[in-house]
Amino acid sequence: MEYFFVLYSNSKEFGKYSYANVVNIHGFTNYNREHGWEKGNDFLKKYAKFLSNSTDDGLFFRINGDDFLMISRKKIDKELLINLELLNETSLSVTISYFDLELSSHVNALKELVGYEI
To answer: Considering the domain boundaries, does residue 10 fall inside one?
Structure first.
């Protein structure tokens, strides 16, 4: 997330991005308990790779644990991120929070969510 804060403080560079999605994976603690840390780490790596490949014009950050942030120039189909075959093979679920970076209220909510302090 440190790079996100550097990017955000450079308004010229950050201004290239119009959309943000926060991806929250639910049930991951239980998944780790049932399948072990190694399998949990493997899942996170696969899912992170999928997320980073799902946009060719954006950036991808890990907020913490099993929460991720994607910023992009184009809007990303949330259903694509939720209905991933990888998730269907597990007991995990995903919710997506969408932010329009051209709206100041959305930017403020996003900053609060990721812990950005002015």
So the answer is: no
